[in-house]
Amino acid sequence: MTMLPPLGRRAALAGAAGLGFASFAQAQQAETPRRGGTLRIATLGLDTADPHRHTGSIAVQQAYVEALTSIAANGTVEPFLAEAFEVSADGRVHSFRLREGVRFHDGSALTSAEVIANLERVKNRVRGGWLVSAMRLAESFEAPDARTVVIRMREPYAPLLNLLSELWILSPNSPGWDDTITRPIGTGPFTFGDWRPKARFVAPAFSGYWQPGRPYLAAVEFDLRDDADFSLALRAGDLHVASVGRDKLAALSRDPAIRLGKLKDTNWFFVSFNNRSPRAPFDDLRVRQAIAYSLDKRAFMNFTAGQDGIVTNQMVIPGNVHFDRAMHDADAHVRPDPDRARALLREAGVTPAQRRIELVSWQESYAQVAAQMVTRLGFPVNHVALDDLGAQRRLGQYDWDLAVFSSGPRADLFLRYVRMMSDGPNPVLWGGVQDPEFDALVNAAVREPDQARRAVAYNRAWQRVLDRYYTVVLGHSQNVIANRSEVQGWDPGFTWACHWASGGVAQAWLAPRNPAPRG
Question: Which Gene3D superfamilies does the UniProt entry name for this protein (predicted)?
């Protein structure tokens, strides 16, 4: 039985209409953009000044760096610093035609030589991250002329165009180029300005930006504080754009100066087992199944995302080209079944009261919801809630049993699969899966140029994850982004990126603020 609304994703979005969810762009007036002003944003932080070494700071750094491609609001790939691209019939050769007139913030021109320098830096000097697999397969980088870049792969590699949207092109004159970049020189609409880690980052406008007449803003200022409640700052006008928790939505929706929208891609929530060094009895498939039967997915998603949270057993939601309806409908754990769970534990010879579960999570309330569901089977649970660095350290020791986490929007589905591969980057959230057959299935999908056949191949790999209970997907939600009504020309994109080829801060401007009504 499906737990999705009858109209799938559209129904989920419609169910939130009472809270004022809408497209910001649709609600904006057709006016001549005003120049000047500082747009103040609070979404994700900035973890490094070196864009090639980031671990999740694209909400900030895409203000000042750009890539050959970008991800449009509908998830498709669009040209960015490349005005056009072409892929050979065998999927091995990718050719890019660079835009004319693009300059770095130091005034130097962008040519194919600089692009290739960035590709080689990521391939040869950067360890870890999303681009490791792609760069490992890159056979050569060529520059037939000053505006043409050719990437030859040893074998077909379908995710490349999407992944290049996060390979930012910097001037090799950037300080720290030979080690760790300390002050990136990019091509974006804003420049790398004053950075105070965990506090704020100010990016002044770049007067030589290649898009004529843009940006309109004088600067963008990012609030980098972790876990702050930005709803009051939004309502007071101290912030213009911010990600907000769902517990603040009711109050924000009643404010006529606030509009609510969503990122187009999703967060997905899951409970993972320790797959690298599983301790008895969690190396027994029946015990893993019992844990899965204890989880009430709908209740969890109601707590996390409200009624528009989407319950499924997959990495993606309906409407995504990789969503498999039959696999979704066959989810044995769409509803909790504690009686079945206890029967499986008896069959496995497990007495829950005699086995304490070590459960690791971030310091998020949703993890406690999952922990309480597991305790109903009789397991005592030692729930260790840590900050990001502490969780990464503990997970990497593989001395735990369960982990409750979420993972955010990605530029390509492969960026979700690669985290479960044997040599994937940062695999700890999924228990460090070591499965050569799973790796082979994912690699087969990556080598498939045809989109329809690639989706089938990816789903074969995902079925193996389901069958072996490496992780149990609870569901998906879309991050809520609020902005004040004076913000014009801007709408949330597919991922956290604040700037992309067809949208973002380069097109944003600030209308006069309406005076507060007198009461």
Answer: Dipeptide-binding Protein, Domain 1, Dipeptide-binding Protein, Domain 3, Periplasmic binding protein-like II
Q: In what order do the strands lie in the sheet with 241-243?
A: 194-196, 200-204, 219-223, 38-42, 241-243, 480-484, 258-262
d(CA 446, CA 155): 9
Q: What is the pLDDT of residues 290-348, one digit of tens each?
A: 999 999 999 999 999 988 899 999 999 998 889 999 999 999 999 999 999 999 999 99
From CA 39, how far away is CA 95, in angstroms rounded?
A: 36
**Which ranges of 36-176 does DSSP label H, i.e. alpha helix?**
58-61, 112-125, 132-137, 160-163
Amino acid at position 392, single letter: Q
Q: Going along 92-218, which residue ranges are E strands?
A: 93-98, 138-145, 148-153, 194-196, 200-204
**CA 231, 232, 238 angle in degrees (round to 5)?**
100
Q: Which of 490, 485, 481, 486 is nearest to 511 (CA)?
A: 486
- Residue 26, classed as helix, strand or coil, is helix
Q: Which structure tokens are listed for 390?
A: 């502490």
| pLDDT tens column, 101-153 | 999 999 999 999 999 999 999 999 888 666 877 888 999 999 999 999 999 99
H or E stretch covering 328: helix 325-329
If DSSP codes are grouped into helix, strand and coil, which group holds residue 41? strand
